[in-house]
Amino acid sequence: MGGRSGRKQRITEAFDELHGALAAALGAADGLQDAAVRAHAETLVEQWLRTEGLDDARADPALAVPLANPQLADVVARVEADRAAAFDPWLRTGPAALAELLERAAPLSAGLEPGRWLGQVGKADGIEEVPGLWRIGQGRIGQGRIGQARIGPATRAAGKSLTPPVTWPVGVPLLDESHLQITSTGDGRAQAEALVETLLMRVVSHFTPGLVRLHVWDVGQFTGVVPGLYPLTRSGLLTVHDPGRLSHLLEELSDRIRRVHTRLLIDGHPTLASHVAATGTRVKPWIVTVLVGDGRPLADEDHWQLQRISRGGLASGVSLVLVDVPVTLQAPHETVRLHDGGAATSSMTGEHVVVVPDPPLPRDAVTRAAHVLADAHEHGHARAFADLLPGPGRWGRERSVTGLRAPIGFADGMPLDVVLADESPHALIGGPSGTGKTNLLLTMISSMAARYDPDELELYLLDFKEGVSFAQFTRGRRDTTWLPHARLVGVNINTDREFGLALLQFLADEMRRRAEAAKDHEVTKLEELRGADPDGRWPRIVAVIDEFQLLFAERDDVTKKATALLEDVARRGRSQGIHLVLASQDVSGIEAFWGRPAVFEQFVLRIALPRARRVLGELNEAAMDLPRWHAIVNHDSGVRHGNEVVRIPDATARGTTDEVQRVLHGTWSAGRPEPVLFDGSRAPAVADLLPLLPAGGPPQALLGQCIDVAGRPATAALADTPGRNVAVLGADAEDAGRVIGAAAGSLAGQYPPGSVDVVVAPLLADARALLARFTAAGHAPEVVALDGVRARVEALAADVVARLGGASRRPVLLVLLGADAADPVLEREGIEALRRVLRSGPETGVHVLGWWRSVARLRSTLSVSATPDDVGAWVALDVQGSELGALVPGMMLSWSPRPGRGLFYDRAQHSRPEVVIVPSSEEP
């Protein structure tokens, strides 16, 4: 600081010398010029009065004429001599000294002429020297306002000048030293705007991109006064504020000043500059805020807020540039006044020096330079992801006993943590499409996973939109690594709201399990449980649900159940180490939570991306002015004073999230199960579901995959009890064939070879693959054509009667592929025989697996002597819920058909039908 203070002192002394020389010269000239004017006037009046005979008339001052009276030549000469004697000594050395001082005080882009520095934009690399001055133009003595206003008429008429025209570069202080106040009259406004644009370009060009952030507010237009600098907005170096939101900008600056003083200047340093000088590190960028007014006073509250910012801003790295904003600053500031014709005066050089602003920079050159700066900043921004990760040897070393803490971005150049703990148990993230929500979530997941091992942190990740960003955390065809912390990954589930419900149910069950364990150990929360049960595995759970509002999009049972579960988990999960991270474009329209404010009150951590609404507090609209790649992080339930502006690094580029996963997989994957992947766009393969069938007990007919956390197979047990038949309902032959094929084919391997009689009637579908499966399993399937169905069914009905009388009960499977197609050939006797098989067959070991093309046709088969209870399990495909009421009397079903989905009901295990996924056509 000593060198900088000395430089500032030399600058002050040099300009004091200039001011003194000007005052002495102009003071001497003023006195002598006044005497000369009076003597000349008296001579003229006397001559005129004698000529007119009006010796006693009084002179009219308007009669004054140019000082051309030979009688005054002596006086004029003395004026010029005295003024030269007072001013000439300074002229010999002063301008050169000032030019030398500015060269030292304003290095590189701060002081060079535009043509010499604009081409070097973007090449600055962490310059530590902070310029004391920033060039704005040239000072001139001997012409302009000095010559026109202060030189006598006789000298002007003669074309003379009391001082020779001399020039030198002029600069103004900024950043830590001073604010800048600019006023303009007439066409001086255009010059003022050009001066501001050039000055800002000098400032942002001097340092590594990112060390200076610009904010612009213009009362008269949305676009502000620096259009050439707009490319800086894409990287967050420039923010243009709405004309009607001055109070929000001032509040943001006030919060910034408050945070610097309360969080950074707590070690005795009076200013941010002194903190930087002592530590050698700048952790907060400079904020240069340009306010452009129209000459009219600000509102009282804005006026006083601006006064407070001006007083505390410089110590916190906040500088103001005011253009035609009428306010008296009670803080160090310089003034520049621009007049008609382009001339200006500055408080730095005094009112007797004309300042000629540097000519405006070419607009295309400014725009190119701004693009270069933005690119340079974004390039550094992309590399910054690595700065969020732990250092070597620190991966997975953190403990989650008291909570989770991990940085997700950079606030003023320093990593900023998000915290999920008892005090801030859940996070709510909001931002319109395209504002970086997915990037933020990837950053958060990677940062947390790098700090905690899988026994400290488990992740459950759902994405309701049609995206697959979370799928990268599971094994892929090219990248076979997976994230050891992930237990469940759900993607493309925009139409499978039941999966979100299943996750909430799982979390609620896990919450109760942990609560019971805590009760057994006589403790109340996870932190205490981990201490009481050190050998137990009690990781913290983080469930991330992107576009969670889709879970509550309908007025149905799913929304009703999900709302109750979410409220329960949000309220009680904190004590059991279960944390929710919900992301959405807009939470205000979720009808299910109208009148339930307590739900989101549990979401203490709020993160708002650019243009996010209603995520922060009701009156906190700071996110509206955020640039790209930034977010507001708030650990105080969205209250404005808790805002932290964070720059989010790119977590999607190669070498970021993928590299974190590679390292974590190599470290912790051994001996751990892979995460379950639920991809709503892919049908499960039968071969993948067969190993998951329940072991022991009666054979299980596989009907699809349940939509739950475990990805369980949907099965119906074929026990020897009444009603153990299976029906598939729907007109779509392809989906129906896949379900009935999976059901029958899955049974082939559950019976010992040759121990079951299989009768297949392929009435409306090809059964070759199914027959091949039974043959391969050691069975000899019997194929019955349409013309032989009646005889075979009647024979089977007779067998059932015999079995009821005590005959042998060898298992029999009757597979009807299009059962209703046999109605014309079965006739009354055949249909009655089929009813007998359905009603009495299961308890004797005879089970029917049939496909009917509609509910009505199944009801026709069951009417009179059979009931819906005789088909104890069914899967409905392209059938409306209103049609299914006949199969579940007294129950209202709101089911609407969906591609690849079915409604599964087994009266032996369900209180209500559940949605299942139809298996793929891949052969089992």
Could you walk me through the main structural features you see in this protein, from its secondary elements to its overall organization?
The protein is α/β, with parallel strands linked by helices. 36% of the residues lie in helices and 19% in strands. It is built from 23 helices and 31 strands. It has a 10-stranded mixed β-sheet. The protein has a 10-stranded mixed β-sheet with strand order 23-22-31-30-29-24-28-27-25-26. Helix 11 (437-451) packs parallel to helix 16, helix 12 packs parallel to helix 14 (557-572) and helix 18 (733-748) runs parallel beside helix 19. The longest helix has 51 residues, at 2-52. The protein is elongated. Mean pLDDT is 83; it is low at 25-33, 57-68 and 143-163.
Low-confidence stretches: 25-33, 57-68, 143-163
The overall pLDDT average reads 83
Strand order of the main beta sheet, please?
2-1-10-9-8-3-7-6-4-5
Find the structural class using helix and strand composition: alpha/beta
The number of helical runs is: 23
Q: Calculate the terminal CA-CA distance, rounded to whole Å.
A: 78 Å
Rg, alpha carbons: 42 Å
Strand content: 15-25%
Q: What is the tally of beta strands? A: 31
Give a short account of the largest sheet: 10 strands, mixed
Give the % helix: 25-40%
| Overall 3D shape | elongated
Domain FtsK: 413-618
InterPro entries: FtsK/SpoIIIE/SftA, FtsK_dom
Keywords: ATP-binding, Cell cycle, Cell division, Nucleotide-binding
Protein name: Cell division protein FtsK
